[in-house]
Amino acid sequence: MSFELNRKLAAKRDPLPTNVDIDSVSASIIRGALETICFESCAHLGRAASSPIINQSNERNASIIDSNGRLVVGSVGTPHLTFVTQLTVRYGLMNFEEFDWGPGDVFLGNDPDYGGGHLPDYNVYAPVFDDNGELVMIQCLQAHQGDTGGKDPGGFTLEATDVFTEGLAIPCLKLVHRGEKRRDVIKLVERNNRFATFAGDLAAMIGGVQYAAREMQALIRKHGTDAVRAALNYTVDYTERRFREEVGKWPDGTYEATTWVDADTQGTPDIKVQVAVKVDGENLSVDLTGTDDRQHLVGVWNTYGNSRGYIMTQLAGMIDPSIPKNEGLFNAVEFVIPEGTIAHPPINKPAALGSFHPACEITEAVCVALSEVVPERAQPQVYKIGMPNAVIGFYDNGLMWVDQGVDSRSMDSSAVKGIDGWGSCPSSLGGLLLSMAEDSERRYPVLNISREMVTDGGGAGQWRGAPGSLNVKKVLEPVSAMAWMVSAKHPLRGMCGGDDAIPYSNHFLVGTEDEYKIELVESTMLPQNSVMAYQHGGGAGFGPALNRDPEAVKEDVLDEYVSLQAARDKYGVVLTGTLEEYDLEVDVAATEALRAQMKAAAV
């Protein structure tokens, strides 16, 4: 049933019916207005939400789906949320009569087997009708919620073998009927969440889509239904044409790559993701045949919608950024995602952790495959973290708190041709801002001891990956803690001859005789004043390190991104002077000789 539904949900949608032949300027004006509405809807949610995941980290996204179920407009947010949103809405549209859609309604969906990504990503959406009662568009707000009502706080259960362990799955639920809140339904949803802040988050999502729906109705009245529909058709067609033009510049051929997840959450090693990207003129296909399909795997199941969305996240990062992100991208790509694999699981498989891995490995594989085709844009749109250290405790009033470890850190920011890796997290996270360490300390009984970048923590290359950070945190009360470690055996891949990123690692009870390294998963109690140290991998390098400008290597050493030893061993750069005196200089002759020797030895 799930496979058949996925085929229906992903099927290509027709353009909207319209009698207007719109010009490009008018279409752009309408698209720009809708993008602004999306942005304002996101801003409403960010300012009104209660939880730091949304109001600090901005893990939310707005998009507009047309009445045929096509993604037509997206806004600032996390790209993979943009590219999965429409499938959840399409399930609702398939049941238009049964679910009694009408003006003023607001719906909710999060079910991985009904178009969703994973349970924490709640999609709240509102249909927009014109004054004649015709459905024109649907405004969506999708946001990651801190809990899902499952076995473990936060929605991530390391040993889950089905989705029911992870929480409440909602295919399509009406929260507001004709402008009136269904308070019994909203109360049921709130009751299936551990955190008091969730009620504020849900209210903010409802308010955000209602605000946007009013603005969209005003836009429809101003321009007319047919003109708006024509504008949406135009922008989707424009995106498809531009995307195909980009692909048409790539050399024909089939480009393959293999990436790996270290292990599933039960220790089964080397979970495989295989991709073949075929370029045939202006036609592009992405084939995941050969990806792992062992049914006993635990924790590494990525939903069909998510796999499709993560593929597009990478493809969208490898084309001209001025191309609007909408359904036209999907219309230009053929997806082959075999049923029964970890990228297209059977119904009821757990999906929470799969949105990290293998989702990131799918994206990474597409990037590796196309790195020689589009090297100037070959930056993996991934976050290889596995799972941050989540710590759980209780306030004095008995209410539970969860620090999900999503505050400030540096990780996975790879280099791209011409630009060193920079920023605190990879570009795949889009508008996501990691919350401030000080905010976590204010909310939870934790103390951030260190958040320092690590010297030699980025992959070497002609352009260098950003260093990862060592995050050392002390818990001031007894807590339970959870972690899942990956990217130690298979870290983030370098591009076009650049070095891989450094591996991740994680230690609990640091500084005591009982200190230990997390090898796979951990779910344990930690006593008061326990210290955890999580080494986040940095970004990968791009291009051979021996091609890096020696002066840039010198500056890296002065900035403590690169050590003196690595400057010589990785980059072949000989420096005179000392770091202490800040008088380093490149010995040009010695550097040229060393690099020639290293290149000869590598042949």
Q: Could you give the distance between the termini?
A: 54 Å
Count the E strands: 22
Shape: globular
**What percent of the residues sit in helical stretches (DSSP H or I)?**
25-40%
The radius of gyration computed from the alpha-carbon positions, rounded to a whole number of angstroms, is 25 Å
User: Largest sheet, if any?
Assistant: 7 strands, antiparallel
The total count of helices amounts to 15
- Beta-strand fraction estimate: 15-25%
Low-confidence stretches: none
Number of structurally distinct domains: 3
Supply the helix-strand structural class. alpha+beta
Mean pLDDT: 94
Widest sheet: strand ordering: 2-1-5-4-3-6-7
Features:
single chain; alpha+beta; 5-stranded antiparallel β-sheet; 15 helices
Question: What is shown here, in short?
Answer:
The chain contains 15 helices and 22 strands. It is of the alpha+beta class and 603 residues long. It folds into 3 domains: 2-240, no CATH class; 384-546, no CATH class; 549-602, no CATH class.
